[in-house]
């Protein structure tokens, strides 16, 4: 397939400016980096986190008064999928010790640890067991395993990377448990990259003082997920897995403890009431909200469900205004849209260029600044490149790496990216790539302490759904560690909580009734219904042809 | 170029659009024709046509195995296989998704396995029903040498099977084509775990670190840091030594060793 003739024509402009740019790069003459003031200006004008225009204060609930992106606020101010006063809570369909909501890496680890401690577990999945952002993480998992390293330095790197805005007990838990997580995964039979003597291969990542990134090929998250899911399947007598059956509301009991959830069968549209002594919330992040229309690296099901359910039950969140955008996501070819192109490409000297083939920024600004500069060039200056599928991108001039470091460097240094593009007829050692910022990670999430407790007794949280571990900026390799550390802790603590003697009293949805009253009193008209469960990618044309205005309500089969 | 007052139409999020001037092609989803923009993936083309996935969509990045798809082109008998999120539509392709395949999975206790192949053979006797037709390999969207790892396992070579199958995304297309009714991807999962647990050497440096952590060696250090002022923490952060890039693994030690 490759580039269309129109795009090939535009590439000629890149090629025209390349000799001079390469000559300058050889003389160490770089496009000037921004001053601190310049950074602040471009961030405030163009970084989605800083722009005030599409933000709104939330009017109800534990975070009342805080300001979030419009899409996030709308979901925090949403109403339930069920009419709480019409639900018959007397009919309990299933009972268990621990209900895990979301079977990604965190939830599955929690399930295994709770089962280890003798608890019966149900994992409720929205899609298939393992469908999660965990499975998509490529790079690696941080843990201070080397002799020159220790949890002390892992703590320091993590909190420095997060601009010291992290919640410290969470960082301490992460740093301490990280090597234990690796040992646990090794014992379960995970194929880490190792030297012949069994030592794990470790690498540096952005912001690390010691080599601490362990990996499994370039599919570390997928390997973690495969192994923990396989282990959960081997424990079928303790762990029941229910797929395509997401939780849509938490249940409390008359004493105000968390007591289970309502599940919704997405295939038959039936509801199920699950009574549980403890609940682990591990639903992942919110990339599929496509904040401000951005593409995302996230899984199809990343729609903020857990934050929404917990919010109605009185559990607030932190740092949810902060989203990690990666400056160079793919914008062409269509099948790779939103996927990451590693920072290494720019590290090797590739320039970022506009439609005239001209440089407009220093290529190695911090991630948030670089993202803002790309957005400015394409949207405010109109110098983006339009793709055949209607996306906008900027050039990332990978062929100049060959000129700077010698022929064959691209294939040698970027094997996975080379193959990924070659599959679609683009040789990135000869032709540049089209890139645009992509939504990568929900930095914030629900409030928990270092032992994964929320303010709601019986509700524990783990993984991307929790906030505070990474502060307002996450280091590479800490998300997979977050998943295993807090997943394991949630399972262990839920089991201990149950052993302390938990008696669930009468089930209740009063918290939802109360929350919806608050919505009404706050004057919120037409609140969204959430959790939204899946994104809707219908085009405007299709949506129109569904005749939303003319369609009779109650039409059979719809 | 003609002047236009309307803003250009951009595709946002993951929603596909038909930009001005772009052409459409006919594809057949389970036999029914839809006109979709060229260059879209099967997944996005189906969404453009109005389908909303429940099954058959996952990571949308080629790694989760949710969207295996089989297709044929008009006038050609040959079957092709791919992931809906990674395969670009072609004119007159006839496609169907296989989002789930009922393959047999044997339950086992990893603690009771060993590095010998006998236990794997006992759990999956159907392994020996393989007739080496190689349809599994041809169906694999990840270009895994499926027949290669199945043959290795028949010969008892667990390490070879583990390494050959490493890129498997467990989509099940191999099993869907197997005349021996072998659940290749489940057997491969078992082989990889057995290899990593019983054949690949365990990490000794990690064992020592675990012992230190469990003995509480770092608890006080972490407590101290949790209580530090932001300024002190920032100073400690800025002053920390960085391990050089090009050193032998495990050989470099920092000047300051009190926190190791």
The CATH H-level homologous superfamily of the largest domain in chain A: FAD/NAD(P)-binding domain
N-to-C series of helices and strands of chain B = EEHEEEHHHHHHHHH
Coarse shape of chain B? flat
Average pLDDT value of chain A? Answer: 94
Strand order of the largest sheet of chain B: 2-1-5-3-4
Beta-strand proportion of chain B: 5-15%
- Low-confidence parts of chain B: 1-8
Name the average pLDDT of chain B: 92
Which structural class do the helices and strands of chain B define? alpha+beta
The CATH first-level class of the largest domain in chain A comes to: Alpha Beta
Q: Can you identify the CATH class of the domain at 110-199 in chain B? A: Mainly Alpha
Cα end-to-end separation of chain A = 39 Å
CATH architectural name of the largest domain in chain A: 3-Layer(bba) Sandwich
Structural class of chain A: alpha+beta
Radius of gyration of chain A, in angstroms, nearest whole number: 24 Å
> Count of helical segments of chain A?
16
Total number of domains of chain A: 2
Strand content of chain A: 15-25%
**Low-pLDDT segments of chain A:** none
Relevant terms:
heterodimer, A: 558 residues, alpha+beta, Flavocytochrome C3, Chain A, domain 1, FAD/NAD(P)-binding domain, 8-stranded mixed beta sheet, 5-stranded antiparallel beta sheet, 20 strands, 16% strand, globular, B: 260 residues, Ubiquitin-like (UB roll), Fumarate Reductase Iron-sulfur Protein, Chain B, domain 2, 5-stranded mixed beta sheet, 10 helices, 5 strands, 10% strand, disordered N terminus
């Amino acid at each position: 397939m490759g580039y269309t003739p129109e795009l090939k024509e535009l590439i000629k402009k890149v090629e025209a400016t390349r000799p001079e740019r390469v000559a300058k790069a050889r003389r160490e003459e770089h496009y000037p980096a921004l001053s601190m003031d310049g950074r602040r200006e471009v961030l405030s004008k163009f970084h989605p986190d800083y722009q005030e225009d599409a933000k709104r204060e939330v009017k109800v609930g534990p975070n009342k008064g805080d300001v979030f992106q419009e899409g996030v606020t709308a979901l925090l101010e949403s109403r339930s999928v069920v009419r709480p006063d019409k639900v018959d809570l007397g009919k309990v369909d299933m009972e268990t010790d621990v209900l895990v909501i979301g079977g990604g890496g965190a939830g599955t680890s929690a399930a295994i640890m709770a089962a280890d401690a003798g608890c019966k577990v149900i994992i409720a999945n929205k899609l298939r067991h393992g469908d999660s952002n965990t499975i998509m993480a490529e790079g690696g998992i941080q843990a201070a395993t080397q002799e020159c390293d220790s949890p002390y330095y892992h703590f320091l790197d993590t909190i420095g990377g997060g601009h010291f805005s992290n919640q410290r007990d969470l960082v301490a838990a992460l740093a301490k448990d990280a090597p234990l997580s690796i040992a646990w995964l090794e014992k379960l039979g995970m194929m880490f990259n190792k030297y012949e003597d069994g030592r794990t291969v470790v690498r540096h990542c952005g912001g690390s003082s010691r080599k601490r990134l362990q990996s499994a090929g370039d599919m570390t998250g997928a390997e973690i997920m495969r192994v923990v899911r396989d282990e959960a399947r081997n424990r079928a007598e303790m762990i029941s897995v229910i797929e395509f059956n997401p939780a849509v509301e938490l249940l409390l009991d008359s004493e105000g403890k968390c007591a289970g959830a309502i599940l919704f069968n997405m295939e038959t549209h039936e509801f199920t009431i699950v009574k549980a002594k403890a609940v682990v919330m591990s639903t992942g992040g919110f990339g599929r909200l496509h904040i401000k229309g951005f593409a995302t690296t996230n899984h199809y099901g990343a729609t903020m469900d857990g934050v929404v359910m917990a919010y109605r039950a009185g559990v607030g969140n932190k740092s949810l205004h902060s989203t990690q955008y990666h400056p160079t996501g793919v914008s062409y070819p269509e099948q790779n849209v939103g996927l990451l192109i590693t920072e290494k490409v720019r590290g090797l000297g590739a320039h970022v260029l506009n439609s005239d083939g001209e440089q407009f920024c220093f290529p190695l600004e911090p991630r948030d600044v670089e993202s803002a500069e790309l957005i400015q060039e394409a949207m405010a200056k109109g110098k983006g490149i339009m793709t055949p599928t209607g996306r906008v991108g900027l050039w990332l001039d990978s062929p100049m790496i060959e000129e700077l470091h010698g022929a064959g460097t691209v294939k040698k240094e970027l094997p996975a990216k080379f193959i990924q593009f070659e599959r679609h007829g683009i040789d990135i050692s000869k032709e540049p790539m089209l890139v645009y910022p992509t939504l990568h990670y929900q930095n914030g999430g629900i409030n928990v302490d270092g032992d994964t407790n929320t303010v709601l007794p019986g509700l524990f949280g783990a993984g991307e759904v929790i906030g505070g571990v990474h502060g307002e900026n996450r280091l590479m390799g800490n998300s997979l560690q977050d998943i295993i550390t807090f997943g394991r802790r949630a399972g262990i603590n839920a089991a201990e909580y149950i052993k302390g003697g938990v008696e669930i009293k009468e089930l209740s949805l009063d918290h939802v009734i109360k929350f919806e009253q608050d919505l009404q009193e706050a004057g919120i008209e037409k609140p969204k219904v959430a959790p939204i469960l899946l994104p809707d990618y219908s085009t405007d044309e299709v949506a129109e042809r569904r005749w939303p205005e003319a369609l009779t309500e109650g039409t059979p089969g719809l | 170029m003609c002047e236009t007052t309307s803003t250009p139409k951009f595709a946002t999020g993951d929603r596909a659009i038909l930009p001005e001037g772009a052409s459409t092609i006919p594809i057949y989803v389970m036999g029914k024709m839809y006109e979709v923009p060229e260059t879209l993936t099967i997944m996005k083309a189906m969404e453009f046509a109005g389908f909303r996935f429940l099954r058959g969509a996952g990571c949308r990045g080629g790694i989760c195995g949710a969207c295996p798809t089989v297709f044929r082109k008009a006038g050609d008998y040959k079957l092709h296989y791919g992931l809906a999120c990674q395969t670009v539509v072609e004119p007159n392709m006839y496609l169907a998704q296989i989002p789930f395949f009922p393959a047999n999975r044997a339950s086992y206790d990893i603690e009771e396995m060993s590095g010998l192949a006998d236990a794997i053979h006992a759990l999956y006797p159907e392994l020996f029903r393989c007739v080496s037709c190689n349809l599994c390999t041809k169906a694999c969207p990840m270009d895994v040498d499926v027949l290669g790892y199945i043959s290795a396992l028949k010969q008892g070579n667990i390490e070879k099977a583990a390494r050959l199958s490493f890129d498997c995304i467990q989509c099940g297309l191999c099993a869907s084509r197997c005349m021996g009714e072998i659940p290749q991807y489940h057997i491969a999962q078992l082989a990889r775990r057995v290899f990593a647990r019983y054949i690949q050497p365990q990490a000794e440096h990690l064992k020592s670190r675990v012992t230190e952590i469990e003995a509480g060696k770092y608890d006080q250090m972490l407590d101290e840091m949790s209580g530090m002022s932001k300024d002190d923490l920032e100073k400690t952060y800025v002053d920390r030594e960085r391990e050089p890039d090009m050193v032998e693994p495990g050989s470099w030690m920092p000047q300051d060793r009190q926190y190791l």
